[in-house]
Design a protein that fits this description.
mainly alpha; two-stranded antiparallel sheet; 18 helices
């Protein structure tokens, strides 16, 4: 395997971002292709590391800075590697998708500008965009709480600038809203980190088990959860999500879903694995919060007519499926919850990117003004159907085995725990029906029925291949994992299986 493999997956986007910044007036449209190729390279590196991990190895790279507590160690194991790989894969797909989409946004927002200004604006998107894969992979691979905090809080800063420049309605105000909510979550998460250090004298994640049984561990877990629930838009912390997720440029919509979902990985890595006994007191309350969020998000989605806000509100519901699995605290529920996390971010990338294609092609956001577009945009309709099936947990996509495994574990907890846990498990399964209703109802409103006369123009057609092909390939990855879930479950089971009760 190539030397410094894990470090390269974080450093290469930084180097390419700096290169794009300093050559922004020369590259023009080449910037999108350079950024995309860089992410192809880092995805290949993670794939090669994944082969080693699948064979039973643990890839560990140590980079000391000042001392053992201030180091930049990177770990690829059965938990961090698949998470990093899928997130980087989605970043790559959406970078290709953005090549044409950003041209459209510049035209809509800035109108006619001179060539030098156009190149500067266009390139700025891609050197900012590369902050996402750096942040996602960094959060996944680091072994230090301070490093994890740094990468986690880098993401909303990148998001702020992209939203402020390329967003939709009231983009600066909405970008500021996102940044402020992120700051609230960051302060709560940082409070948990500092309390941890004050009690065990280290920031190393591998030493968190020393907190077990400590009188302060309840408050430490509470601060961690409060900060992460803010990012996951768990009820009642969901206020920011419909606005922020609906008004950012659609080419990064899947990445905002990743940003919110990555909290599930952090909960497993930082709380569940080292502190499972202390976490048990939170299990039933968190399961109830997850169920409320699932139902509230679904009902909110069904009330939407704006195609972007429709996809945004569905994220609130979908995020909490993983949380329900994690809170059940059995091997199957946690492994299934993590599998569903990966399945959801792939499905949401497809659904939201399709919404972006619709706005890109038609200029319309209101689903009531659409209809019959399947005949004019068959590839786009196919991608929406794939995304709907992925979010609804239908075969052959990966969300089907993910939900099956997760709810098996949830029902095991429901039988063992107080009766309320079983009620939550049953209602959680029933909530899946709401997902099926709103995703396929949206499909019917947009792609079937008579064509709206206002959209009969021959210019209404499927987008360039650089936008649709990466999404179709993402769907193919989900099908492969749906047919062969062992590819993912073997990774997770190597880390989680021996630490949690079945």
């Amino acid at each position: 395997m190539m030397p410094y493999t894990l470090l390269q997956t974080i450093v290469v986007p930084v180097i390419v971002s700096a290169f794009l910044f300093f050559t922004r007036y020369k590259l023009g449209r080449k910037a999108g292709w350079i950024a995309s190729i860089a992410l192809v390279y880092t995805t290949v590196l993670l794939f090669l590391a994944g082969i080693k991990v699948y064979q039973g190895a643990i890839v560990y790279e140590k980079y000391p800075f000042v001392g053992p507590e201030i180091s930049f160690d990177l770990l690829a194991d059965g938990l961090s590697l698949p998470v990093a790989f899928i997130m980087n894969l989605l970043c790559m797909a959406l970078c290709f998708y953005s090549i044409h989409y950003v041209e459209h946004r510049i035209e809509v927002i800035f109108g006619e500008v001179d060539e030098r200004t156009w190149r500067s604006i266009y390139t700025s998107f891609f050197y900012l965009f590369l902050g996402f894969p750096m942040g996602f992979v960094g959060v996944s691979l680091v072994t230090n709480l301070i490093a994890m905090y740094f990468f986690l809080e880098l993401l909303p800063i990148v998001l702020y600038f992209i939203m402020a420049y390329f967003g939709y309605i009231e983009r600066v105000r909405v970008a500021l809203m996102c940044l402020l909510w992120a700051a609230v979550g960051a302060c709560l998460f940082l409070a948990g980190i500092l309390l941890t250090y004050s009690h065990i004298g280290t920031f190393r994640i591998s030493e968190l088990h020393a907190l077990a049984g400590d009188p302060w561990v309840f408050w430490i877990i509470l601060f961690f959860l409060a900060g992460l629930f803010t990012k996951m838009a768990v009820f009642p912390f969901q206020v920011w999500m419909p606005w922020v997720h609906a008004e950012h440029p659609t080419c990064i919509a899947g990445l905002l879903a990743v940003y919110a979902n990555i909290a599930a990985y952090i909960i497993v890595r930082v709380i569940i694995l080292p502190l499972q006994e202390d976490f048990k007191v939170f299990c039933i309350p968190v399961m109830i919060m997850a169920l409320l969020t699932m139902i509230y998000g679904s009902l909110l989605t069904m009330a939407q007519h704006d195609v972007k806000r429709f996809a945004a509100c569905s994220t609130i519901s979908q995020l909490s499926y993983s949380l329900l699995g994690l809170a059940a605290l059995t091997t199957y529920s946690v492994e299934g919850g993590m599998f569903f996390f990966l399945s959801h971010i792939m499905g949401k990338t497809l659904l939201f990117s399709t919404a972006g294609i619709l706005v890109y092609v038609t200029g319309v956001r209101d689903m009531r003004e659409m209809g019959g577009l399947g005949a004019k945009m068959p590839v786009t309709a196919l991608i929406w159907i794939m995304g709907s099936m992925m979010l609804s947990g239908l075969p052959p996509f990966s969300s089907f085995p993910a939900e099956w495994i997760m709810f098996t574990g949830v029902f095991v907890r429901g039988v063992q725990a107080p009766p309320i846990a079983l009620v939550v498990a049953i209602l959680g399964v029933l909530a899946i029906a709401l997902t099926v209703v709103y995703t396929f109802w949206g499909m019917q409103r947009i792609f079937f029925g008579p064509v709206n006369p206002k959209l009969s123009s021959p210019q209404i057609k499927d987008p360039p291949l650089s936008m649709s092909v990466p999404l179709l390939l993402t769907g193919v990855v989900s099908i492969i994992l749906g047919l062969y879930p062992k590819l993912v479950m073997d990774f997770f089971h190597a880390v989680i299986g021996g630490l949690l009760p079945s």
